[in-house]
Amino acid sequence: MQDKIRELQRRIADEKDPLKGRLWVSDDGEGAVYLAKSAGFCFGVHRAVDMVYGKVREKDFPIYTYGPIIHNDTVVGDLRKSGVGVIDSEEDLSGISNGTVVIRSHGVPKRICDQIEERGLTLLDATCPFVKRIHEIVKKKSAEGYQIVICGNAHHPEVEGIMGWCSSPAIVITTEEEAEAIAKKDYGKPLCIVSQTTFNYKKFDKLVEIVKCLRYDEPAILNTICNATEERQTEARAIASLADAMIVIGGRNSSNTQKLVDISRKECENTFFVQTFDDLNLRLVPSRGIVGISAGASTPNNIIEEVSKQCRKTILLNRC
Ligand code: F3S
Prior knowledge:
The protein is α/β, with parallel strands linked by helices and 320 residues long. 44% of the residues lie in helices and 18% in strands. The site of FE3-S4 cluster has 13 residues, from helix 2, helix 6 and helix 10.
């Protein structure tokens, strides 16, 4: 058996190691496929998808989701076939007069929830509870007179949603320069700093450190990063550092999948990003060594299992 595969087996057995996934090893011990434990739907995505399918089973049509329920074309396409429509904008919403609107796990600004209710539509809130907690924090803190600062991507739907629960305009920062600029500026009120759930831990600590240098005990700091993201990234980094090829599965528009690709590529240059098994070029799967598989939070389990199965088959076929 290859030393590297032995090393991987030893690490999986170590409770403190982030590598907790499923390992398959070929009979001769020369090839292995590691499937990350954290690959696929997180708690919030699972909950949101289950809520929509539950409504479909009740046949309580018309049913809409506000924006695609998750960043995965396969799931969105399947829901479309089941009769679930997607509302793409506030303008679209204004044209709808009956039915249920499901709010996706990323959440939406408060004004969207208000509009749904004002129009007499049924609101089914599938906002992830961890995101909902941020809405409650910013709502309370902005009402108490704090200037809300969000560490995250201003164009991401989750951040747009969070901004929409503040009673005064929030500031979004991502870079150290932006952190320095807000630390120096006098807003006439204390700062309250929160983070997008998928923000990078190390980066958040760095931005907070910069702000605190100048405004020592003034800011209220709430690290609202979700553990699921950190666990997924840590496991992907760990397996990519051992793997001979790394496959990351996820939707084209999924920012958390893209982050996994970036992290994996830094550790393993043979990193391949695929949306489904059809995108995978099996000729690139090495027949010896370790193939690591991770997937974004919006990737359905059946797609992950299919990729994993085909990788195992390829390794076996290449050995015959
Ligand atoms: Fe919720 Fe965390 Fe997933 S915030 S949607 S459980 S990544």
